[in-house]
Amino acid sequence: VMPETKRLFLIDGMSNIYRSYYAVPRLSNSKRVPTNATLGFAMMLRKLMTQHHPDYIGVVLDSPEKTFRHEAYDKYKSKRIAMPDDLVVQMPYIERVCEALRVPVVRVARYEADDILGALAYQAADNGLQTIIVSTDKDLCQLVRDPQIVVLRVDKTGETFIDEVGVKARLGVPPNQVVDLLGLMGDASDQIPGAPGVGEKGAVQLLEQFGSLDAALKGWEEIKKKTYRESLRDNVEIIRQSRELATIDVDAPIRLDLEALVTKEPDHRLAYELFSELEFAQMTREFADAASGAGPADRGDSEAIDYRRVSEMAELKDLIDSQLACERVAIAISGKPGELHGIAFSSAPGGASYCDVDASGNRQSAISLLNEVLDNGLVEKTIHDHKRALGLAQPAGLRIENVVDDTLLAAYLLDPERTKYELPAMAVEYAQFSNEFPSELPERTAMEADLTGRLADILGARLESEGLTRVYREIELPLVPVLFRMERAGFRVDVEVLNRLSAEMEHELEKLTVHIYELSGEEFNINSPAQLGDIFEKLNFEVSRRTATGKISTSRDILDELALKYELPRLIIEFRELSKLKGTYVDAFPSLIDPSDGRVHTTLNQTVAATGRLSSTDPNLQNIPIRTEMGRRIRRAFIPADGCVILSADYSQIELRLLAHITADAVMLEAFRGRLGSNLRFRGGPRECPRAVPSDRPP
Questions:
Q1: For residues 565 and 558, what is the distance between their CA atoms, to the nearest angstrom?
Q2: Which residues contact 136 (CB under 8 A, 6 or more apart)?
Q3: Looking at the chain, which terminus has fewer C-beta neighbours within 10 angstroms, N or C?
Q4: DSSP state string for 221-287
Q5: How many whole angstroms separate alpha carbon 406 and alpha carbon 422?
Q6: Over the stretch 459-495, which tens digit does the pLDDT of each residue have?
């Protein structure tokens, strides 16, 4: 990027729309309108605007009419597959996205987007601007003029800026030879024939030998390979026409209007309405300020609040008496595991009281008074993240009973794909709360209690309207204390088993290392992708894809591809998998054992997986492999307590089971009934599962 140079971002519309359509899983909103391409395109566009801050921006789309290329060659794009129906439906929404984000759409009748991109990019370069063309189309590499014009490729691996060096690395030729390359190799997607029998590799070789397509056509007799020689001799007109069809018309009839392309602030109200309609939760939240009619900098006056700090025992006694008179209170607890700081109570919007358990001078008396409310089954409690609250309260001697609302769980059920559920963000989104969130602990905790109370009723109404109340009250809420007890119980681990496994795996890794060095012909850092790529280059491994710098990729999919033909990549895969198992599990678990009970304690998360399943973190006990022998041996290091068993129940083929239930198909129902219990496995203790496990003895 040229410093202090204004930048124009030109988005190749259809290239990015199709990429979004195939990259994002099939999605639809509650009205069954397909939304995957719209979501992917909107996220791409918004990311460009917020991360790169372009001075000018525009989306360029093809003209619906036939172009001059169709007139020059009747087979041009004649076999291109029609746009999928579920993408056709999304095109008007994509244009509405551009309108809401205030990104202009540019079209010119009878010209393709490539020509418009080329014409605008060249005019911008002539006016001293830098143009970034956002596309995955290799044809546009012919426009690269360092440093004024570069191509930005956005794909699943991230963003890659392609300049002159990048074009050579990607295509094997510099930008000024791209049209010659396309003339020789053709383009199957556009039905540009090229030279019959000459593919991309051959085209690059010919251009390296002759320097240009014209020179290759003139010197065809010097070509060593017979098929290439005869192809260039017999197909001169087809090859020249292919080059002409592939050449972008940078003189297309369009004038660069920078004033029309100036980057503007999105229309917040329009964006909020559109993304709400499409049910894009994250982007709806971004523009939630429009819900109350306020602009991004116009949020109105802050609300009146009354937050008090209680430090004297007499004040605390009065506070507890007032909370006992309430049917429901919202609470927030501050601190970290083993170090409770304070508790805040809120029984009305805008009001909250914070109790510092140490400020009273008698911590135990303060705890006893607090328990009069917290442990009272007649007073309903609302909490944000009940399980975390239990983890803070229990070690301090606090008992929390009769929790009827957890705003974290409610928010998760309403939007399970969200990654975070912070109270301030939800208060803005759901309650249009506009106060600044305080940094001081007492005020912050008091506000958390206040916001929790405000949100409980709002989220409860939303759960009711979306038919989620039963799931919330009968499944998610009762599960919290169960998960908390499971986390507290932990898993018993046989350290000796892990130590033996570690030694065996170290020995196996040493053997693999020796074998890998023998096949490579030299020693290198096996864990270094760059060094491994150099080894593959030295051994002349053939791959279908390279990195943006032209090196052989060493990603897992490429290794799997190479392993079908070469032994070395297969050994690299085996080395990586064994090394990961050893480092992540076998060597890590002993250091994670709690010395107070000799167990590993994981965290079981209810609000992480969008599918509703639990996730395990710190450490992740769900990722221990089960299909490999080494993975099964690692699992055997987990042992039950005396007189108990470990039960593994795999609820397999869930989609097919749901289908059997919905369709009531007799054959499917019988198949699954016949397999009931076939996935249950017991280990340790007696073969029969005991009817009950004593509550004071964790399994």
A1: 12
A2: 12, 15, 16, 19, 153, 154, 155
A3: N
A4: GG-SSHHHHHHHHH-HHHHHHHHHHHS--TT-S----HHHHB-----HHHHHHHHHHHT-HHHHHHT
A5: 13
A6: 998 899 889 999 999 999 999 999 999 999 999 999 9
